[in-house]
Amino acid sequence: MVRGEFDDDDLCENETLIVNAGCFKIGLASSYSIIPSNDKDRLATKARELDVDILCFGGGHRSVVFEADGKLFVNPGSATGAFTPATTEVSPSFVLINIQASTAQIFTYVLTEDGNMQIDKKKFTKESEEE
């Protein structure tokens, strides 16, 4: 678990954490450890610093999933649709990642304004080490 921007210090002190799932190294990073937050160049730098295949990060309260430089970047958004001063249009969202061998399937769930659940699916395959 990593500390969120508004979490108490005694809850968790980690700004980053690396976990292994199958053949993937997954980095978890607090939003305040990536400045400016959601900046693709800074996110790529953080992924290289942590030497991870997948970087999960927060900030912005909006779900984002994209690939760059052979890495996957995932912001699950806000499960509660919590307020953010950045925008008034925040939809509750979360992400599930299913890992099988060298493939990760990413399912993004977003509650739409009409109360329906929108589900987006993306596939990410880890590049082999020999390439």
Automatic annotation (TrEMBL):
Annotated ranges, domain Calcineurin-like phosphoesterase: 2-100
Stretches that traverse the bilayer: none
Pfam families named in the record: Metallophos_2
Record-stated family: Belongs to the VPS29 family.
InterPro entries according to UniProt: Calcineurin-like_PHP_lpxH (IPR024654), Metallo-depent_PP-like (IPR029052), Phosphodiesterase_MJ0936/Vps29 (IPR000979)
SUPFAM superfamilies the UniProt entry points to: Metallo-dependent phosphatases
Organism: Tritrichomonas foetus
Lineage: Eukaryota, Metamonada, Parabasalia, Tritrichomonadida, Tritrichomonadidae
Protein name listed in UniProt: Vacuolar protein sorting-associated protein 29
